[in-house]
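User: Is it possible to get a 3D structure for a protein together with its bound compound? The compound here is calcium ion. I've pasted both below.
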Amino acid sequence: RVLVGTKVDETHANWVTAYNMLTGIRVSVSRTNAKLDRELTDADFNVKQKSTFDITGNELVPSAKYDFKFKDYAPWVFRHLRNAFRLDPADYLMSLTGKYILSELGSPGKSGSFFYFSRDYKYIIKTIHHAEHKFLRKILREYYKHVTENPNTLLSQFYGLHRVKMPYGKKIHFVVMNNLFPPHRDVHTTFDLKGSTIGRDYREEDLEKNPRATLKDLNWLRRKQNLELGIQKKKLFLEQLQRDVALLKRLHIMDYSLLVGIHDLSRGNDENLRGKTLQVFNPGGEKSPEDDLQASLLRTPSKLENYRKAKELRQMVQKERPVPMGEANDQMPDDVGEDRRGLIFNQDDGGFRATHEDNEPAEEIYYLGVIDCLTHYGMIKKIEHFWKGLSNDKSKISALPPDQYGDRFYHFIQGITMSAEEAKRERARRDQE
Ligand code: ATP
Ligand code: CA
Ligand code: CA
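Assistant: Yes, that's possible. Here is the predicted structure of the complex:
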């Protein structure tokens, strides 16, 4: 099996950053996991745990200086969150840091965030804006409460919040979260749905070049697509979505979307296609990964610098505990689809299988979740203000207040959630009118 994205190896511009992220996670998460479990306290939500990594080279190679600072935010809260989301603690660390392999998706959105997949494709590291970071810390208590009351929440599952800082480098904030898509199944079609139609169109002509592009609301509507869920599953899905949206509204969050990955069982896994599209997978589809690197938030040291630091870090890491380094044909564990069976929306091969009205299974498996939910209304307002001041073009961005955003979002999704049978009746009814 192959990973989607560009492998981050020693020659990659973001290798050192990626390496620091993983080292920081490995050391700080093991530290917390090593302790006996205990109840959370109020103070746990505000904890910042600082670590300093530094090794100084010998006299012969004075440049072999390796240092960065790492911060782990609310480590106990995230330990409890990982538990609530039924992650196995050892498994989590192994997936992310057992071998130092990540693949980079470049920056799929306009936001400039970078996305990295863990080698087994289970986890995503997303670099986030400082404002999103501050906001997540601010709402962490509410988020935690929501997750404990709604273990099947469709909201992004956050497993860790961290920061790395290299000398003279930028501070890079990032979260670790669930990859909604399965490692073992091809996702044939992907949609990112907001319930808005303005600018929500992917040029279908470009699909040939980029068959894995993320489609949007207008593509969905044009294709007369539905989220085919029979009576039982529709109820489960919409009730959970409603509770999740209620929280987002209350926290004044907006700009989130429902990510829908569709696996068509009649098509199965197409390994050839997967191999061919490996390098071009780019959900945003607008920019090449190279463009994004240029605009990167990340500091990008020279190749030689990367190489030196990587070598040093490798030695350091190996001293502490031997870590086999990234062989080219890294095999993924085979049990990836077996995990987390208890969660409702992951119950069918890691996803939620489409059903007919009578709850009999249909031909598709959906992989669903509400993503990009760290944008506070105030942030949007500020950006909007900035743009308006700059271009005097009011139409460029029009921020909807969070209540309206949430209602429009929910009603859109509610309106497209129906079994094939229900859709047929609906069409007949409309034709009558
Ligand atoms: P923008 O703010 O411009 O929308 P962003 O950088 O905040 O962009 P997201 O909206 O979070 O990015 O994600 C962009 C794309 O990355 C999504 O449309 C989706 O294709 C992919 N993606 C994001 N999160 C996940 C996830 N948890 N699982 C699988 N794919 C994801
Ligand atoms: Ca988004
Ligand atoms: Ca965003």
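Confidence is low (pLDDT under 50) at residues 272-302, 316-337. The chain has twelve helices and 13 strands.
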